[in-house]
Design goal:
7% of the residues lie in helices and 57% in strands.
Length: 118
């Protein structure tokens, strides 16, 4: 059974924590959530980091990061049984790209640079 997690409930769950995601069982990345709907994403593969902000768009959670990607990256965050997953949405439809939330903790992300991750 799966249930959609509303953006306000997601914010309550994620703020002040780091969420660790996998793709097909392989670590994909981690995101630390701060107050004011700010976040810091770190890819598992190469360790690159990006500071972002997120907002609710209906039932979707949409992230905006600096850089060449145009427009927000939107997800539906779902409770699946005992765990959580995030499904990528483009143009209001799920794409089939799905990340599984493997763990949540209070760890800071190891990101290079004087401002990032502080």
């Amino acid at each position: 059974e799966e249930r959609l997690v509303a953006p306000d409930a997601f914010e309550a769950l994620a703020e002040g924590r780091t969420l660790h995601f996998s793709l097909d069982g392989v670590p994909f990345g981690s995101e630390r959530f701060y107050s004011g709907r700010r976040s810091l994403w770190r890819f598992a593969g190469d360790g690159t980091c990006a500071e972002g902000v997120w907002h609710a768009r209906g039932e979707e959670i949409c992230f905006v990061y600096p850089g060449p990607k145009v427009g927000p990256i939107c997800w539906r965050f779902l409770r699946e049984g005992e765990g959580y997953a995030a499904r990528l949405v483009e143009g209001g439809a799920e794409t089939g790209f799905r990340l599984v939330l493997e763990a949540m903790d209070d760890a800071r992300l190891a990101c290079p640079g004087p401002e990032v991750g502080s």
